[in-house]
Amino acid sequence: GWKKGTKITFPEKGNEQPNVVPADLVFVIDEKPHPVFKRDGNDLITTQKITLVDALADFTVTVTTLDGRTLTIPCNEIIGFGYEKVVPSEGMPIAKEPERKGNLRIKFDIRFPSRLTSEQKAGIKRILGVS
Q1: Contact (CB, 8 A) for 73 and 65
Q2: Distance, CA of 80 to CA of 127 (rounded, Å)
Q3: CA–CA distance, 75 with 31 (Å, rounded to integer)
Q4: Please, what is the average pLDDT of the chain?
Q5: For residue 130, is pLDDT > 90?
């Protein structure tokens, strides 16, 4: 769970020469971009594409974690713009407390239909109670 910029120092493990104290060997942590997750502190963020129907009705999100586990996460709430589903303790390990982890935060990209028939529009209005 080390963050970008963290320095790891191995004292006196650098180049060795006779009659000279070896220098410290220092590594600096860097991060590579990941195709699914973005890191925000100890949290991991992912974005799921969902349909408008999924946003309005119950659905399930499946996420494969960095360690290869598959999480099945029920979403029983209405998903609006900017909504994030938080899954506690599924983020990055906390460096000085490795038994604790940040959260997994799931953002949603809601895909709207490109067109609706008159009957579909009327049905939506009826279901949502709009006249």
Answers
A1: no
A2: 18
A3: 31
A4: 92
A5: no
